[in-house]
Write a structure and sequence with these properties.
The protein is an alpha/beta fold. It has a single domain, classed as 3-Layer(aba) Sandwich (Rossmann fold), CATH 3.40.50. 36% of the residues lie in helices and 14% in strands. It has nine helices and eleven strands. Helix 2 packs across helix 3 and helix 2 packs parallel to helix 9. The chain is globular, with a radius of gyration of 19 Å.
C-alpha cells in the first residue's frame, strides 16, 4: 500500500473512532421572552448568552453534537442584558466569538432556528441523548418549572443515570418532576412556603442562584419583585442547598447524575464538567 493511501486509511479510522465516542447532548431552553413578577409587573428576559454558549462551544469543540429544544419548539429569546463582556471575564474577543457562534447556529432565528419541541424530542427517543443541559436567565422560571414534557424527560434521565446539568436559574426546571408543580409554586407565591412529597431530586445536593445574589441583582427587575426565589423553592421541595463562599464566585455541585452551577460565572465550569463526564471510561 502506498504511504499516502496508508495515511488516508489511518485518518479515516481515527475519525471513525473519534466519532464513535461523540455524544448527543440535548440543550433545553425556555421559549418565554418574559417573567411575570408580583403586582402584574412583567420583566423582559430570556436565556443568558454565556450560560448557553460557553457550554455549547465546549461541547462542539470536543466533537459532540447538540440538539436545541424548547417546550413548544419556539425559538428562544436572548436576554439582551447578558450580551456583555462582563460575563466573559471582560474579554471582548470571547464575547464576540460566542455571539458569532450563536448567530451561526441560528438558535434565536424566528424563521431558521433548529430548535425542536419537547414532544419531538420524545418522538426521537430519550435514548438518543447522552446528557441534557438547561441554561439560565430568568425565563425558565416562567415555563420550564411547570413543563410536564420536561418533567417526563428529566425523570427518564434520572432513572437512567444520565448527566443532567443546569445553571443559575436553570435548576428551577427540576420542579417539573413534581406531581403538581403548579400547586407547589402557587403555595410559594401565596404563603411563602410549600410542601410536597415524592420529588425526584429530594435529598440531592444542588446549587442555584442564591437568595443573596437575587437580592444583589434585583435592580435588574426595574422595581419589580419575583414571586419567589429558586433557592427557597428547591430547598422546600427537598433539595440540600450548597452555596459559594462569596457572591458571584463560580460554584458547581455534583451529586450522582445531577450537575448544577450557581450563577453566570459558573457556566464555563458546568460546561467543563459535562465534557468530562462524557469522556469514555476504560
Amino acid at each position: 500500500m502506498r504511504p499516502i493511501a496508508r495515511l488516508a486509511l489511518a485518518m479515516t479510522i481515527s475519525a471513525a473512532a473519534f466519532n464513535a465516542q461523540a455524544s448527543n447532548v440535548l440543550i433545553v431552553l425556555s421559549d418565554s421572552d418574559h417573567l411575570d413578577l408580583k403586582d402584574q409587573k412583567v420583566f423582559a428576559t430570556g436565556f443568558y448568552l454565556n450560560e448557553l454558549m460557553q457550554p455549547v462551544k465546549l461541547l462542539l469543540d470536543a466533537g459532540h453534537s447538540v440538539t436545541f429544544a424548547t417546550p413548544t419548539g419556539k425559538a428562544p429569546t436572548l436576554d439582551q442584558s447578558s450580551n456583555d463582556k462582563m460575563y466573559f471575564n471582560n474579554d471582548l474577543a470571547a464575547l464576540q466569538a460566542h455571539k458569532a457562534l450563536l448567530d451561526q447556529l441560528k438558535v434565536t432565528s424566528k424563521g431558521e432556528s433548529p430548535v425542536i419541541s419537547l414532544a419531538r424530542v420524545e418522538q426521537i427517543g430519550y435514548e438518543h441523548f447522552d446528557a441534557v443541559y438547561v441554561p439560565g436567565g430568568h425565563a425558565p422560571m416562567q415555563d420550564l418549572l411547570h413543563s410536564a414534557a420536561l418533567g417526563k424527560l428529566l425523570n427518564n434521565f434520572h432513572d437512567n443515570g444520565k448527566t443532567t446539568a443546569l445553571v443559575c436559574h436553570g435548576p428551577i426546571a427540576l420542579l417539573s418532576t413534581l406531581a403538581d408543580p403548579v400547586a407547589f409554586t402557587r403555595q410559594l407565591e401565596t404563603a411563602g412556603k410549600a410542601s410536597t412529597k415524592g420529588w425526584t431530586y429530594a435529598g440531592y445536593k444542588f446549587t442555584v442562584i442564591s437568595n443573596q445574589e437575587e437580592e444583589l441583582a434585583k435592580g435588574l427587575l426595574n422595581g419589580g419583585a419575583m414571586k419567589f426565589y429558586p433557592q427557597t423553592a428547591l430547598e422546600q421541595a427537598g433539595g440540600v442547598y450548597r452555596s459559594n463562599t462569596s457572591p458571584w464566585a463560580s460554584n458547581v455541585v455534583i451529586d450522582r447524575e445531577l450537575v448544577t452551577g450557581q450563577n453566570p460565572g459558573s457556566a464555563l465550569d458546568v460546561g467543563k464538567a459535562i465534557v468530562e463526564r462524557l469522556k469514555p471510561r476504560s
